[in-house]
Amino acid sequence: MAVNTEQYQQIRQELGSEVTLVAVSKIKPVEDIKALYDLGQRDFGENYVQELVEKQLLLPSDIRWHFIGHLQSNKVKYIAPFVHLIHGVDSYKLLLEIEKQAAKNLRTIQCLLQVHIAREETKFGFNAAELADIMEILKKGQLQHVQVRGLMGMASFTEDEQHIQKEFIYLKGLFDEYFPSLHPGLPTSVADSQSLVSEYPSSNPSLPVLSMGMSSDYRLAIACGSNMIRVGSLLFGARSKP
Ligand SMILES: *Cc1c(COP(=O)(O)O)cnc(C)c1O
């Protein structure tokens, strides 16, 4: 089995409870997911709709499934019944379709808006002006079955750490502008602090989410203010192309 459980335990310790680790299991078999599940991991990320639907059927129902890939509107219906968080929302049209499918399933679907921060044109996401526009539209409150929790971004594919850092800081700036934390202070009672620890930040709906950082740059991302990282190859081993 290719799962690196030592690496997993080490990352968990590093993160404490302030950063949610999404284990990115795309292309990896359900046995590998189960291995991390048995160690307590509950947040898993997938990129492909059909693969996610198949795995979801085979694995425990308390897994929080994150869709982190590029989502086509016509496929939202397949994941709408169970998906926990959709990271890569990159058009208003897609958001409207998620709203429609969430309503049909009598649920609220949590989403992140993807921001284009990388140099590569092949990556998806809003630019700053488009993000401003969509935040204006969202303020009107017409989407009742979608909860936009925060932002997601992918840095450029480069070894240049300073460049990656610049992109992360830029995204954190937008995040702070549009998703100021509702609970900046420390919890006041022990009960509060315990519930904050167990729920922070993935499943506490009042806390905004900034999803940035992958295997190669998660430490840098956290230093730049990320509270959700998406880590695949460090945990599951390298992927061959699908
Ligand atoms: C594959 C993928 C990851 C994980 O990448 P690793 O480098 O294997 O950690 C994270 N985010 C997205 C959007 C991905 O597609």
Outline:
This protein has 10 helices and 8 strands.
Q: Can you put this structure into words, describing what you see?
A:
By secondary structure, the chain is an alpha/beta fold. It contains ten helices and eight strands. The protein is globular and about 45 Å long. The two termini are 19 Å apart. Bound molecules: pyridoxal-5'-phosphate. Pyridoxal-5'-phosphate binds at residues 24, 26, 47, 68-69, 154, 214-216, 230-234. The site of pyridoxal-5'-phosphate has 14 residues, from β8 and α10.
- Structural class label: alpha/beta
Radius of gyration: 17 Å
Ligands in the structure? pyridoxal-5'-phosphate
Round the mean pLDDT to the nearest integer and report it. 90
Terminal Cα span = 19 Å
Shape: globular
Unreliable runs: 184-201
Helix content: 25-40%
How many runs of DSSP E, i.e. beta strands? Answer: 8
Helical region count?
A: 10
> What is the N-to-C order of secondary-structure elements (H for helix, E for strand)?
HEHEHEHEHEHEHHEHEH
Task: Report the major sheet.
Answer: 8 strands, parallel
Strand content: 15-25%
Largest beta sheet: what is the strand line-up? 7-6-5-4-3-2-1-8
Summary tags:
single chain, 242 residues, alpha/beta, eight-stranded parallel sheet, 10 helices, globular, binds pyridoxal-5'-phosphate
